[in-house]
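Incident review: delayed structure delivery

Summary: a single-chain prediction request sat in the queue longer than the usual turnaround. Root cause was a stuck worker, restarted by the on-call engineer. No data loss occurred. The affected request and its eventual output are reproduced below so the record is complete for anyone auditing the incident later.

Affected input:
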Amino acid sequence: MTPPLPRAVVLLMAVACGLAVANVYSAQPLLDVLAAEFGIGHAHIGSVVTLTQAGYGIGLLALVPLGDRVDRRRLIIVQVLASVIALGLVALAPNAPVVLAGMAAVGVIAVVTQLLVAHAAALAHPAQRGQVVGSVTSGIVAGILLARGVSGLVSDLLGWRAVYALAALANAVVAALLVKALPAQPRAASRMHYLALVGSTFRLLAEERVLRIRAILALLVFTAMSLLWTPMVLPLREPPFLLSHGEIGLFGLAGLVGALGAARSGRLADSGHAQRTTGIALALMLLSWLPSAMLPVSLWGLLAGVLLLDFGLQSVHVTNQSLIYRMRPEAQSRLTAAYMVFYSIGSGLGSTLATLAYARAGWTAVCLLGACTSALALVFWAATRHLTPDRASGFIAHV
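Output delivered after worker restart:
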């Protein structure tokens, strides 16, 4: 019988995930200063985030499936070390092409978060899998949200390049800790060669109906997330608010309540309440756009919107993962890759649409677009909920 994972190991994996994903989102509160330094217009500055997400998508398909074939522990440690190099490239970038290339490389390597989640799911006792996945995913949530606050504060004090220099140092420390503490995984079950392994990732999407449904939900909810967070810095840096990068980043701290939703949702999914959790979470995401639209006159409305959106988003995300990780234990890395490709597409799409909408019609257009995306997610869930069991154990392929 699989022994429970020690809490200290789960915490380390959560911290490693948080630092890795923070590298992807640190740029969001810095978009205006990056636009000014590298001569990128506001309508196109979202490409910084979009390229990072594109790199993330490439990494999901190119690197994550390897976790089902090679030593996942070694792969995780190598990627964390590689992130130190990519972050250093961004910190020293002399021009826009180099910084964009560095951001894309950061995105490719940041998929180590998904290897860590899959590794945690494989090591966890079956009865605690949802809870462990929720705890590790809480680290991802915390990394996403703290990244904005920390990067804004560091940028105000030391400049935006220091954000990436300090991130490189932090990842070097994490790599050393992982070498000492990360448990090894039993020998990978798959003996397929690399191209067949990557190809089987797409076959999983074709064979597993639950995976397809939950992946589309991920695309929609992460599009909504990027629609809120990517352009937020632009109105907050302008009159009448004139907030500093550090002050803007504090909104991310408010969203940490999403981490609580993530951990709780894993336990609810383990108890057979995946559909109810998903429906309530999607309704909260839709509701979040009403107070968010108050931004021209009230920061408190935006704060309430952030709380609701992040809580709902992470509840859906953890419930999705808890369901799909139980389908095929021998293919957890590929399941992760297939699912998270849709996450990456949603995040990149939301970033691009958000800055275009803001440049053309302001914050109201951003909120309207976000509300439509959240409503679409809720409708899609309602239309497909009867196709997805609350408990994922014993799944067979349904096309």
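Verification: The chain has one domain: 7-387.
Action items: add queue-age alerting; document worker restart procedure.
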